[in-house]
């Protein structure tokens, strides 16, 4: 699969852009685990134009994580164009436009998935951003606003006509948020459209290596984007990459020690990037959902203590004790 001149190889895996998740450290870990392309946290065009420090920090790219995309969102053409030009100076490989975020503070103001209610403006912004920069421009969006307005097949053609170089489709409407099941049949319809020549990247409910393989073999997408399943579980890409590259879909999971080592690295790098207190607050999102801890009998009190820890020493003591406990309990399900 290619985005412009960027060759991602066969059956590429892409790390979805996620606010407060896909910082530079996490992206690099996922890259090392098998991701073929990473995406930044989404960047507000308005905040970027105003030079808000917390937003400009999101433009940091490590050479080892390339190719990578910086994703921008907004509801007005002029700030989106200016933001795209600013992003270009950070030298990402791709600029991605977010027309898919469903949360109220974004979509409710007309940006992200909110743009699915104003297709002319969506196309105007897309065309203007494509014309303003020399980098490949891509789009991430959803099936439509609600179940009565699944417009993605026609919309994909319109976005292609604006000059985008690839399209990522989350298989839900905005109204669904993250509930129900992603509609991969609808994503397949986009890919099967003979008038569409750009790569189609499928997104939604890719939680196992088996589902990643099915996305390619059954639905025919060019790439697979993984989001929430990677939170607290960057090694999922190791398993998926092995499954995709093996003839029979087999894979060998990382050892328990290797997975705990990655979790400790996330903690260390989060603290190094910010500071001890805020770094721990940031990493709690990963700890709260990590499959490493699922299925452990009577783990509730330990989990509460882990999520309340305020120092690195306190948190590491809990992590170390948990790893030791897991190593002694062979009946614990393999995450």
Please explain how this structure is put together.
This protein is 43% helix and 12% strand. It has 335 residues and is an alpha/beta fold. The longest helix has 18 residues, at 256-273. It starts with a strand and ends in a 7-residue tail after the last helix.
Tell me, rounded to a whole number, the average pLDDT. Answer: 95
How many DSSP E strands? 11
Q: Runs with pLDDT <50, length 5+?
A: 331-335
Largest sheet: 9 strands, parallel
Strand portion, in percent? 5-15%
Strand-pairing-aware structural class: alpha/beta
Please count the helical segments: 14
Fraction of residues in helices? 40-55%
Spell out the helices and strands N to C: EEEHEEHHEHEHHEHEHEHEHHHHH
Report how far apart the termini are.
Answer: 30 Å
Using the alpha-carbon principal axes, give the shape: globular
- Radius of gyration from the alpha-carbon trace, in angstroms: 20 Å
Provide a quick synopsis of the model.
With 335 residues, this protein is α/β, with parallel strands linked by helices. It contains 14 helices and eleven strands.
């Amino acid at each position: 699969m290619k985005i412009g001149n960027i060759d991602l190889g066969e059956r590429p895996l892409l790390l979805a852009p996620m606010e407060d998740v896909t910082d530079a450290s996490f992206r690099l870990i996922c890259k090392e685990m098998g991701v073929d392309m990473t995406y930044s946290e989404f960047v507000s065009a308005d905040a970027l134009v105003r030079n808000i420090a917390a937003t400009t920090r999101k433009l940091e790219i490590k050479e080892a994580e390339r190719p990578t995309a910086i994703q921008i969102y907004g509801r007005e053409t002029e700030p989106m164009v200016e933001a795209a030009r600013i992003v270009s100076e950070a030298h990402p490989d791709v600029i991605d436009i977010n027309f898919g975020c469903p949360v109220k503070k974004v979509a409710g103001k007309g940006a992200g998935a909110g743009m699915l209610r104003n297709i002319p403006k969506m196309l105007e912004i897309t065309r203007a951003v494509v014309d303003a920069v020399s980098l490949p421009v891509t789009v991430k969006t959803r099936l439509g606003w609600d179940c009565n307005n699944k417009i993605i097949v026609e919309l994909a053609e319109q976005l292609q006509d604006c000059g985008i170089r690839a399209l990522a489709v989350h298989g839900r409407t905005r109204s669904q948020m993250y509930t129900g099941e992603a509609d991969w049949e609808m994503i397949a319809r986009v890919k099967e459209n003979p008038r569409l020549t750009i790569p189609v990247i499928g997104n939604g409910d890719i939680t196992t290596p088996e589902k990643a393989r099915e996305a390619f073999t059954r639905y025919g997408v060019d790439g697979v984007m993984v989001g929430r399943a990677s939170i607290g579980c960057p090694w999922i890409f190791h398993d998926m990459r092995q499954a995709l590259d093996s003839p029979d879909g087999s894979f060998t999971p990382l050892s328990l020690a290797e997975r705990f080592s990655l979790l400790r690295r996330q903690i260390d790098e989060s603290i190094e990037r910010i500071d001890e207190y805020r770094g721990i607050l940031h990493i709690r999102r990963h700890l709260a959902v990590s499959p490493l801890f699922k299925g452990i009998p009577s783990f509730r009190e330990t989990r509460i203590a882990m999520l309340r820890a305020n120092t690195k020493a306190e948190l590491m003591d809990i992590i170390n004790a948990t790893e030791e406990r897991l190593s002694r309990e062979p009946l614990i399900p393999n995450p």
